[in-house]
Automatic annotation (TrEMBL):
GO terms for cellular component: NADPH oxidase complex. The chain crosses the membrane at residues 12-33, 103-121, 161-185. One of its GO terms (biological process) is superoxide anion generation. One of its GO terms (molecular function) is superoxide-generating NAD(P)H oxidase activity. This is NADPH oxidase 1. The keyword Membrane applies.
Length: 187
């Protein structure tokens, strides 16, 4: 165990810093949306799921920025060969580039799941507040933009159909963007 720590201390430090940044970004964004006064009324309608969705979206953006860096061949060649500050320890870390790429992909999957689930709860909370007739603040706020003369925008769309449409749209756009990135990288 002692030799492993001596040999891989930089990899462990790098992963701890990366995980720490993810935790910091999530907690900071969560507290921002959970405590800020300008989101008070939105929190009354949606609860804490707004903060959870926004925090996971920030972590998704951060990790999406990082996912292609470990597989940029020109950048890795530059850091290995031409940089004078590239020590043996850093070169060892650069040899684990695919492992880090996979870890970032797993983190993206985790935050995507959190983000989707939070939005499903957002929809549920909003739907309940729209249907509430108890005069609570959430029901009053959610009905502010509702015009009785116009009716619902799509009366034939039930919440189940709407959730299926939203989920299908998210999957389709994800496949589209991943296909685009795949074609872009293959060139």
């Amino acid at each position: 165990m002692g030799n492993w720590v001596v040999n891989h201390w930089f990899s462990v430090l790098f992963l701890v810093v990366w995980l720490g940044l993810n935790v910091f970004l999530f907690v900071d964004a969560f507290l921002k949306y959970e405590k800020a006064d300008k989101y008070y009324y939105t929190r009354k309608i949606l609860g804490s799921t707004l903060a959870c969705a926004r925090a996971s979206a920030l972590c998704l953006n951060f990790n999406s920025m990082l996912i292609l860096l470990p597989v940029c061949r020109n950048l890795l060649s530059f850091l290995r060969g031409t940089c004078s500050f590239c020590s043996r320890t850093l070169r060892k870390q650069l040899d684990h580039n695919l492992t880090f790429h996979k870890l970032v992909a797993y983190m993206i999957c985790l935050h995507t799941a959190i983000h989707i689930i939070a939005h499903l709860f957002n929809f549920d909370c909003y739907s309940r507040s729209r249907q509430a007739t108890d005069g609570s603040l959430a029901s009053i706020l959610s009905s502010l933009s509702h015009d009785e003369k116009k009716g619902e925008p799509h009366p034939h769309i039930t919440p189940t159909v709407y959730m299926f449409t939203v989920t299908f749209d998210m999957v389709l756009s994800s496949v589209n963007s991943n296909l685009f990135l795949f074609l872009l990288i293959k060139k």
